[in-house]
């Protein structure tokens, strides 16, 4: 079963349970040489940066889950591209994993409900490093914009896949 490295809303266990039933969180990992950002679509993305590292969650998934993730990440429409990478687990061992690289490389602003109800809660659930959580929070607006009234529900409607 392959490993999937999630760094955005797919860190949230409830979302992964909905998108990839039966997937299992293995633990946290980091991807050195990459930087987290929100792209012009307001979605989480990563891009190469030799001075940075991205923290996230490793999930054990199966081939059917990869197909579902391709759908939700918009691979068909060119929003993200699936890529094999090496992440570090516990600063000890490099593991091969799959992740998604956004096609939009310019910094944008996050959708507030997306960061507040999916990205940050997912990162907090897995107790990512405090400095990294602060970096994620730095993407929030510095002035009040009102209450977040809805929970992020994912960007794509679920496909009907046969049970495995």
Description of the structure:
The radius of gyration is 15 Å and the shape is globular. The chain is of the alpha+beta class and 164 residues long. Helix content is 24%, strand content 34%. The chain has one domain: Gamma-glutamyl cyclotransferase-like (Hypothetical upf0131 protein ytfp, Roll), CATH 3.10.490.
Primary descriptors:
164 residues, alpha+beta, Hypothetical upf0131 protein ytfp, three-stranded antiparallel β-sheet, two-stranded antiparallel sheet, 4 helices, 34% strand, globular
SSE inventory with pairings:
Blueprint: E1 3-6, H1 13-19, E2 24-38, E3 44-60, H2 63-72, E4 80-89, E5 93-102, H3 112-125, H4 130-137
Antiparallel strand pairs: 1-3, 2-3, 4-5
- Structural class of the secondary elements? alpha+beta
Can you identify the CATH superfamily?
A: Gamma-glutamyl cyclotransferase-like
Helix count, DSSP H or I runs of 4 or more residues = 4
- Estimated radius of gyration: 15 Å
DSSP helix fraction? 10-25%
User: How would you state the average pLDDT, rounded?
Assistant: 89
Strand content: 25-35%
Shape designation:
globular
């Amino acid at each position: 079963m392959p490993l999937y490295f999630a760094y955005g809303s797919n860190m949230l266990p409830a979302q992964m349970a909905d998108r990839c039933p039966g997937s299992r969180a293995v633990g946290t990992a980091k991807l050195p040489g990459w930087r987290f950002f929100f792209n012009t679509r307001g979605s989480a993305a990563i891009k190469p940066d030799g001075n940075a590292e991205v923290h996230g969650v490793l999930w054990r998934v199966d081939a059917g889950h990869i197909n579902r993730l391709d759908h939700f990440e918009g691979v068909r429409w060119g929003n993200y591209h699936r890529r094999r990478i090496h992440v570090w687990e516990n600063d000890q061992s490099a593991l091969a994993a799959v992740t998604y690289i956004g096609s939009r490389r310019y910094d944008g602003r996050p959708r507030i409900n997306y960061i507040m109800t999916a990205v940050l809660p997912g990162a907090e659930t897995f107790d990512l490093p405090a400095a990294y959580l602060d970096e994620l929070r730095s993407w929030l607006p510095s002035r009040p914009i009102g209450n977040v009234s809805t929970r992020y529900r994912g960007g794509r409607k679920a496909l009907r896949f046969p049970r495995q």
